[in-house]
Amino acid sequence: MPQVRIIAKNFMDMVASLPAVKLDTLYANPFICEAILSGSLPRKPMPLNTVPLPSVEELEKYALEQWECFLLHLISSSQAEKLTNFSPSMIKVFQRGLLSQREKEGSRLTEYGFQFLLMDTNAQLWYIIREYIANAEERGVEAADLISFLLELSFHEMGQAYNINTLTEVQSSTIKDLADLGLVRLHKGMKESWFIPTKLATTLSVSLSDTSTRKQGYVVVETNFRMYAYSSSKLHCEILRLFASDLVVLALLECMKALGGWLEIITFLQQNAHPRAAERVPTVPENVTDQIRLWESDLNRVEMLPAQLYDEFPSQELFDAACDFARQYGGLLWEDTKRKRLIVKTELHTEMRDYLRRQR
């Protein structure tokens, strides 16, 4: 089954993945020396009386809206209320496995994209950050410098303003990308510009394994297979719509094809259960989970293979010879002696065609 792998769970994992040459650049960074060794940050927040600061509630609301807008682009950009002009570097992150682009078609969610949407926010954030760092050198940015700046950002105080003029050109470009994700909020004054880290930015310094606190759920699944979502979030509705549309069975089967199994769907429903539903044991009714398993077994009962049909053979002898030829090379899938029709694997089509031409 395909998996969206979270290779880096914290900055130490990212540092360990760097080659030895890059480690020299990382350890030479001033922030590593000052913050890690001496415990002091090289960048101080702006004085409180010089810039207006949003409340914690406003900042959390902003971060949530930006992050949901970002994720809505994975499902359908038309669903995003506040269309953000994402930078090319962030679009490239999308294209690294989450979205597929075909000629004369819009971008579509891949099987990895389905898995990504069912992850919790912290896992999603680390996946995006890892991919963002992975293509840093393609944008002309040193991965070590980017890791160092992201690590520095994670030590900034949430809700405090920091002067953008203190950033380098690369850091300024990175800040704009992170603002698309909701990690920082940008402000522009008459003379100066500043950024304010949100809670998403401060969680970067925490290991993924340490951020497993349960969030408020919103899904209720009943024994009659009805599902209710107590949420005003358009993102929540669109995620559920992926496998809970009017044609619920068809939607579930398509989703299981993309995810590779039923377990991810059931886990998602359990992790996002409404508090009242979470008190029940089991959270998702057994008859619902059993039926989803049965649907998957039906889905796996038939294996789809590309094949080629041959018919209208002029004689029984030629038909029998063609069957023997396909059988000899392990490509015969089906035969109908009465109607002189057979089906062979597509990879044997060229050899079968040449064989039939030689026999005529």
Structural overview:
This protein has helices at about 10-15, 20-25, 30-40, 55-75, 90-95, 110-115, 120-135, 145-155, 170-180, 200, 235-240, 250-260, 265-270, 275-280, 285-300, 315-330, 350-360, and strands at about 100, 110, 160-165, 185-190, 195, 220, 225-230, 305-310, 330-335, 340-345. With about 350 residues, the chain is mainly alpha-helical. The strands form four sheets. A three-stranded antiparallel sheet has the order 3-5-4. The protein has a three-stranded antiparallel sheet with strand order 8-10-9, with helices on one face. Helix 6 crosses helix 12 and helix 16 runs antiparallel to helix 17. The protein is elongated and about 95 Å long.
Strand fraction: 5-15%
Q: Report the mean per-residue pLDDT as an integer.
A: 77
Structural class: mainly alpha
User: In terms of per-residue confidence, which ranges show pLDDT below 50 for 5 or more consecutive residues?
Assistant: 1-8, 246-251
- What profile does the largest beta sheet have? 3 strands, antiparallel
Question: From the alpha-carbon coordinates, what is the Rg to the nearest angstrom?
Answer: 27 Å
Summarize this structure as a short list of keywords or feature phrases.
360 residues; mainly alpha; 3-stranded antiparallel beta sheet; 10 strands; 10% strand; disordered N terminus
Could you give the topology of this structure?
Blueprint: H1 11-17, H2 20-27, H3 30-38, H4 56-75, H5 88-95, E1 99-100, E2 108-109, H6 111-117, H7 121-134, H8 143-154, E3 162-163, H9 169-181, E4 184-188, E5 193-197, H10 199-202, E6 219-221, E7 227-229, H11 234-241, H12 248-259, H13 263-271, H14 275-278, H15 286-301, E8 307-310, H16 316-328, E9 332-336, E10 341-345, H17 349-359
Antiparallel strand pairs: 1-2, 3-5, 4-5, 6-7, 8-10, 9-10
Helix pairs in contact: 2-8, 4-11, 6-12, 12-15, 16-17
